Please model this.
Amino acid sequence: MDFCWFSTVFSYSSAKPSQNNLEQFPVVVRMAQLKDLKGLTDLLITSFHPSHPWLSWLQPIFKLGIYEDLRTRFNSRSPYYCCLVATVLVQSSCEAEETIIGTVEVTLRPEFNSQSLYISNLAVSLPYRRQGVARHLLLKCEQIAQEWGYQFLSLHVLEDNHSARKLYLSSGYQLHSTQLTWQSLLFKSPRRLFLQKNLNSLNN
Model:
């Protein structure tokens, strides 16, 4: 399940957030662990289901669903699934505490391309956006794909998500197809763009 259930997109606000300077907080990208479930759930909720007064009663439902979906995937032990987290050590009053500031999932989705791994649920905490965290996560996905022997990485992005499109295109992803959904047909909502990156080109 992709947690942005309206579409699979990179969560990246066009507004300029109040930033925490990552020059002071070195970023570490590692594989997620069960102990990270709560932090991951909180990050994905704020990224994909921002709070609105008229939807506040749905937040606990979304949160529980995300938590259980993550736990199920963590416990499935699929050989071709990986959840990554980007973390920093934030100094509290007493000691430095590891904080999750970004995440991405990469998995095998044969319905798209048997030679491609699929990227989903890429999210970065608002105060840490536009500082290279998402790019670090994407580069780690490339490393994983090559280690697993896969040639392509694929993902979806909404056509009006200009910040995400700019990130992906500058990272070497190319438009593969444009997909219409029932939402885009009935409500004239943005279409989904299917992007791919050929990892073999990195070695040429």
